[in-house]
Amino acid sequence: MGSIYNDDQGRPLVAVTGMGLITSLGQGLEENWAAACEGRSGISPITRFPTDFLRTRIAGTVDFVPLPAFNPVERGFALARETVAEALGASGLRADFGGPLFLAASPVEPEWEARFALADRSPPVAEGATAYDRFLAAMRERRDPIFHDAAAFGTVAERLADKFGTRGLPVTVSTACASGATAIQLAVEAIRQGRADRALAVATEGSITAEALIRFQLLSALSTQNGDPARASKPFSCERDGFVMAEGAAALVLEPLARAASRGAKIFGYVRGCADKADAFHRTRSSPDGIPAVETMRAALADAGLHPDEIGYVNAHGTSTPENDKMEYGATSAVFGGRLADLPVSSNKSMIGHTISAAGAIEAVFSLLSVGRNTLLPTINYDRPDPAIPLDVVPNVRRSMEVRHVLSNSFGFGGQNASLVLSRADQVPGGPT
What we know:
Elements: E1 14-23, E2 26-27, H1 29-37, E3 44-45, E4 58-59, H2 72-91, E5 101-104, H3 112-120, H4 131-141, H5 145-151, H6 155-164, E6 171-173, H7 179-192, E7 199-205, H8 210-218, E8 248-256, H9 257-262, E9 269-278, H10 291-304, E10 313-315, H11 322-336, E11 344-346, H12 349-352, H13 359-373, E12 375-376, E13 392-393, E14 399-400, E15 405-412, E16 416-423
Parallel strand pairs: 5-6, 5-7, 10-11, 10-15, 11-13
Antiparallel strand pairs: 1-2, 1-8, 1-9, 3-4, 7-8, 9-16, 12-14, 15-16
């Protein structure tokens, strides 16, 4: 049976006691919240590198804090470091954290410019060797631990662990666009299983580079509406043509409710349910029938012990791609049935772009702020709704509304699906309703 400290399955209720956030809208919870409530866009022309011959020349970059210009790993670390510091400050815990760290990060590589520079200085190699062969030969000839750390995305978690005093071997996950939600799920499971009395879930994305942009362009996944960057990301609109890449990071401090209450911690809300499913349909595409996404949402609701009718708001994956938005609508319809027409839905990506590995955690933070402050964030650029997707999208302007439970979806490339059920701070079994 549930109690004030446990859920209906007898597991510890997992409270969120600290959060940190950086997106293209700004740094910190309050700056981001204010901008998002105003329906501002963080998407702008790329100035970090030349884009003259690229079809996509816009992104949601983070250019307002000092970040290494041409190293995605260093940028990812810097973004994560800032959000962890904010989350720990909000939680009231010391920097010597003492719990496990679960990090979501992209598997980035050195930029080609750096590879070629090394290759030019490489020792002789066999005739017909590729640039990558020369790159490896140069690295063997001139071992450079600093360069290695800067190019290995797994070292981000190790450096965060050293800085903030987390316990045990830090875990790095990369499940495409679901990574941030996956990191939260791993932290929740560690607490539920009694393996930790606190956990840190962090997600970071700093890989807006020319190479990354070209790779997504080759998949025809990106918006090419460069003329008006702020209007390029338009989820569920009939004018959508692709997603907009973006940078950002989020951090969440998670604790069992009993422990959080015993130390008088502020509680932002609860992670009541989580689930993940993989469909293995295609290397980049999700299954168009949406069945794996349906199963993911239903599993998250079952994990939370909630009926679909108890969800008051859906924070959609909502990438603004023609295929994903249509698939998500079909899957959400299967879960919520006829009430979907009156179930508010938003996509934060309309304002901040798609933060890839960080998206699930960033949107979890926005979701918790929404239910805690009785405010549903808008989907901006929703001027021409797609008639094939008849959702109750919160259009262009925020909506004041009391919501107890929100479903936040992350449906990633290659069929990596994850859903979280997040609840307001007073919504606990045995507690006030």
